[in-house]
Amino acid sequence: MLMSQVPVTDRPRERLAQCGAEALGDGELLALLLSTGVRGMGVHELAAALLSRFGSVTAIGRATVAELAGVAGIGAAKASSLVAGFELARRAGTEQPARLLGTPDIAAVAAPLLHGRTRERLVVISCDAALRVLGADAVSDGAADQTLFPLREIIVAVLRRDGTGFALAHNHPSGDATPSDEDLTATREVAAAAVTAGLRFLDHIVVTEASWQAVGVG
Question: Which runs of consecutive H residues, i.e. helices, occur in the chain?
């Protein structure tokens, strides 16, 4: 059914305005993110196809652009909109501290950027001399052909934000927050690079969906 054939009072956009987002089902919310259908398939059918392919909204939120675009009718543009929407939802899920006064503050900033990831991602959190958060940047996403801890990119990310200090966080999709030998070695290398660059390295943590653990500064 085309959206023009749906009664006005039953259209997701109108129901959202009148009743609030909590009144809409998963398919309706997905339809709003998708915005339009494609030739031969309405937007509600596209939303239903996504739910059928991935099984749940949670699984859709963890999918990559390439995985989403593999569903018939979901091209790169719609897949990108979905990924961006779910990423914003993750970031909005936790109020971030203004300053990095302890390791829990690092976890509070990093967790929304790392939860729901199926591959390891490294986040650099930059701060000024007063430990005020200047921003967080993902510098690697665990591709097989690249290191998770690229020293140059880490330092450049901090300097680009005019930071004087930084912390690192990365996720373990396995659910085990115990630092690996590679994590420990990389942390020592980052600590040495920070000294060379004249930056303060605060801490490094491993994040999972349910917990986090400090690696230390080497």
Answer: 12-19, 26-34, 43-54, 57-62, 65-69, 76-92, 103-114, 151-160, 181-197
Distances in whole angstroms, Cα of residue 127 to Cα of each of 146, 160, 165: 26, 11, 5
Q: Can you tell me the mean pLDDT for 166-173?
A: 95
- CA separation for the pair 140, 147 (Å, rounded): 8
CATH architecture of 3-92: Orthogonal Bundle (1.10)
pLDDT score for 218: 60
User: H-type helices in 55-178, by residue range?
Assistant: 57-62, 65-69, 76-92, 103-114, 151-160
- Rounded CA-CA distance 100/125 in Å is 9
Question: Which tokens hold the place of 208?
Answer: 């999972």
Q: For the chain, give the mean pLDDT.
A: 88
Parse the chain into domains and list their residue ranges: 3-92, 103-214
**Residue 137 half-sphere exposure toward CB, CA atoms < 13 A:** 17
Mean local confidence (pLDDT), 136-162? 86
CATH number of 103-214: 3.40.140.10
4, pLDDT greater than 70: no
